[in-house]
TrEMBL record:
InterPro entries: Cell_div_suppressor_SulA, P-loop_NTPase. SUPFAM superfamilies: P-loop containing nucleoside triphosphate hydrolases. It comes from Metapseudomonas boanensis. This is CDP-glycerol--UDP-pyrophosphoryl-N-acetylglucosaminyl-N-acetylmannosamine glycerophosphotransferase. It holds the Pfam family SulA. It comes from the Bacteria.
């Protein structure tokens, strides 16, 4: 089915005319928290769902890669699940000499601990297991940019 073109004009010029009709209106707006084009994202989130064995196998691969980073800083794990024991880390082939395990306690939440670890810049990547709000994601991204680090949050199903 063909639709008639009004006055013989194609759709592109109509779109072009609509934009030029109001040149003061912004066409694209930049989000303040977004990194510059050539800078990598400071925050990533990964959701693993399915059989626990498969999820742990995928997680081992990801953490192994991160533990072998050329960056001399730590791979920091914040409030890792109980199944990620020292024995599991060893069996999964992770470079345990480059991994720092931190547990939140007392008045400091896992989010606060992760933000502090990111801000300090002594870790190339800080991995957390936290249910996050949009505001918390922004806090982690901001802290990661401050410390020239990466924040990775993992949600296990």
């Amino acid at each position: 089915m063909q639709f008639p073109q009004s006055l013989g004009r194609s759709q592109l010029p109509l779109f072009h005319d609509a934009i030029l009709a109001n040149p003061a209106a912004p066409i694209l707006t930049e989000i303040e928290s977004s990194p510059p084009q050539n800078e990598p994202e400071a925050f990533s989130e990964l959701s693993l769902r399915g059989a626990s064995g498969h999820c742990r196998h995928l997680l081992a691969s990801i953490l192994r890669e991160l533990s072998e980073e050329l960056d001399a800083r730590w791979l920091t794990l914040i409030d890792a699940p109980p199944s990620l024991t020292q024995a599991w880390l060893r069996e999964s082939g992770l470079n345990r000499e480059r991994i720092l395990l931190l547990q939140s306690r007392g008045e400091q939440s896992a989010l606060e601990l992760a933000c502090e670890a990111l801000r300090l810049g002594r870790s190339h990547t800080v991995v957390s297991w936290i249910r996050l709000s949009a505001k918390a994601r922004q806090q982690l991204a901001h802290a990661a940019r401050q410390g020239s680090a990466q924040s990775l949050n993992i949600l296990l199903g």
